[in-house]
Please model this.
Amino acid sequence: MSKAATAKRQSIIEACLEMNASGLNQGTSGNISLREKKGMLITPTSMPYAKMKPEDIVEMGLDGKVKGKGKPSTEWRFHLDIFRARPDVHAIVHAHPTYCTTLAIMERSIPAIHYMVAAAGGADIRCAPYATFGTQALSDHAVEALKDRKACLLAHHGMIAVADNLERAEVETLAKQYVNCLTLGEPSVLAPEEIANVAKRIANYGLYSQPK
Model:
């Protein structure tokens, strides 16, 4: 295995460890994948993150066939189908964070309660219908909920976030804000026009000229 390949696999492990350390996930219930040239790299099933080594990360082709040894996460179907459907996606994080999962249990999408909802690609973060974990039905629901989006909730399950890299895959803060708002009542939401305006400004992050 080349140094670059080892480093890529190690980045998945480090993201898993950080996911648990931050409270975004518990145990081995979450899974992470990265796009590979003709497939993906994904975390193995039921292996504690602290014991995971680069060689334990499973490689799968776009045809769904495992390359080498190892057994992929039970949620490999929606990882693979998202990569197939979304050439813009290079990283996928699935986890069961407390606030996202609370809303998912209630089958609630996250509306535009805060302008940063626009960072997820639209005026809301959808909640996909329930389906048994690891099934094609769940994968189909996830792909549909992620159309024009970078994140979605999975009813009675958890969340998925997709991004260009692992650092951007997180929506728990927005979920927490929404749950807290609901303790006071149903919050007002920003108009679709404002979310579109914010989305344009977000697209220009880092491109503004420095003051002279």
User: Anything to note?
Assistant: DSSP finds six helices and ten strands in the chain. Residues 207-212 have pLDDT under 50 and may be disordered.
